[in-house]
Specification:
mainly alpha, Flavocytochrome C3, Chain A, domain 2, extended, about 0% strand, binds heme C
Length: about 170
Amino acid sequence: MISTKTLIMVSLLGVMVASGCAVSQSYKEEELGLRKVDLYSEKTVVAEPTSYSTVAAGESKVIQRSFENAPPMIPHDVEGMLDMTKENNACTGCHLPEVAEAVKATPIPKSHFFDMRTQKVLTEMSQARYNCSACHAPQSANEPLVKNEFQPEYRKQNGAQRSNLLDTLNEGVK
Ligand code: HEC
Ligand code: HEC
């Protein structure tokens, strides 16, 4: 059994250590946020301008996939293409498998010709994939404010350049 006296001594010691060790460090307002300006004023806040690719489709360099089977991001200019309507989808005009090879575009993969609900292969592209830019987006060339330490691991040698989701879809699911 620990005596009451010892207990009091130990806790007193604890309090002394805790208060003695507390480092009194303070930060200026300008150091707190990621934007490094006074947090109480918007006056000097200027967001970095977005700068999307202006390189025409066919002349851009594809961007490495973020991780295995991540949707690829759009490396080329999309000026005039994103007012996508029921009647007009510029993306399919170049990316449907039957035309992709001729224009050297990556063909729309098998997974987009598959109905995820009924698990059936479709003869036409799934309507759920019609709005390409819901998943594939143009990228703005800005430096991230916080460095991303994520390291992707691709199981296939070309995993950073191509996808194979439909072949691996239910992997590990019984
Ligand atoms: C005029 C033909 C054309 C049109 C229209 C077009 N693309 Fe492309 N796209 C290409 C080509 C060609 C590439 C390969 C890179 C290059 O050569 O610029 C490409 C690359 C891509 C990539 C990267 C593929 C990869 O393997 O990393 C994505 C994603 C993409 N396009 C999506 C779209 C979307 C979404 C639209 C509609 C908003 C669209 N594209 C419209 C021709 C086109
Ligand atoms: C619901 C999200 C979603 C939509 C909508 C979608 N995609 Fe994808 N796309 C993906 C994902 C995720 C991948 C990577 C995994 C895979 O193969 O399915 C992909 C892969 C691709 C690839 C790369 C194929 C390869 O062999 O590496 C192309 C090209 C592509 N999509 C084009 C399109 C185009 C064009 C549209 C519109 C007509 C579209 N996608 C609509 C999610 C989407």
